[in-house]
Specification:
By secondary structure, the protein is an alpha/beta fold. The protein is built from 15 helices and 16 strands. It is globular, with a radius of gyration of 22 Å.
Amino acid sequence: MGHDRLNTKGARVTDARYAKSEAQLERARRVIPLGAQTFSKSITQFPFGASPYFAAKAKGSRLWDVDGNEYADFINALCSVTLGYADEDVNGAVEKQLKDGTIFSLSHALEAECAERIVRLVPCAEKVRFGKNGSDATAGAVRIARAATGRDRVLVCGYHGWQDWYIGSTARNAGVPQATRDLTHSFAYDDLPALAALLDAHEGEVACVILEPMNVRFPSKGYLEGVQRLTRDAGAVLVFDETITGFRYARGGAQALFGVTPDLCTLGKGIANGFPLSAVAGRADLMAFMEEVFFSFTMGGETLSLAAACATLDKLDREPVVETMAARGKDVMAGAEALLEKHGLSHAISLAGHPSWSFLMMTDQPGATSFELKTLFLQEVFARGALTLGTHNMSYAHTPADVADLMSAYDGAFAVMARALSDGGVAPYLRCEPLQPLFKVRG
């Protein structure tokens, strides 16, 4: 059964590839806002008419949607799957624990066992507390910093989750009180004078500086050391948000890779290979405030995720997980660079980021905005069996064959994009409406 729709030029197109996904989306939207639990899996990021929306199953590096289409997956559940889908070691540990129970009226030994592994691997970690989402961890770190310093203001750089203290500083601030918004201030990455100016403007008021130690760009030499110095001189707490970079850039995260140890860090997506778990970790004297602030979850000691985390961290310890992700990621970046040059798109699209988490950066062109370009890109790569949102979220399960499949999809997609730009615009090539920006936090 095909679904007829109009492209932006009014031409009627029919595409049955995503018929079941679109039917499921229609059903979901009757009872779920946007039809998804996460913005990044919704119609705000996947253009309607040219995208899959619902997964049926996944294994290793591959995902199948409800229409039966198979993809080489380079989204990997928004970077939360580092070993690969349905990893046998992780699933085995979860199955074993499931026989004994999931959550109890008492704490479980797995809590300490998992915390001990994090303390062993992460430079700043002397003590650890668990949450479920990255937002839990970043909010917990900010609350510790405020309690420890007696100050209220927070300086941010990067994306730090959905809770009021952070999201109020973005364009998605509906529902956040103005008084809360006024306490959070953003600063540009890799710009020490900008951070120094903010600290000076709010002298004696800043509780913490929280940043992603790296996202799109590598830090300039001395930048993270400078952030550490400025933060300490201001009497504030330095927090690295390593929700993504933790256990991905290095076993000990970006702080291990760059040799700069924060006071606190937050961990999340890399801990448990897709099971819901996050953590706040850091200096023992600061973590002691966890006994004073309220950071408490019924599911904080849920044992299936803790068992998954122990198995994941053990595998990181004994196998070349980080090295393999980086090596495959370098192949992706090199291949993409070559294809951009082949199709004459290097002026419009560039590569950035760490090999294990890299980005295609699109810029406005004559006849096409960056979001129109991205929409056409997604339309074409999805149709060719690659799942990416313009990032390469590498996993240990990715093989050279997966990279080859991605490059084949890019070869076809880039050819279409180059032709569209040569013709003066991408609109006639779209089978859907172009995406609109959610908000920008990385750059």
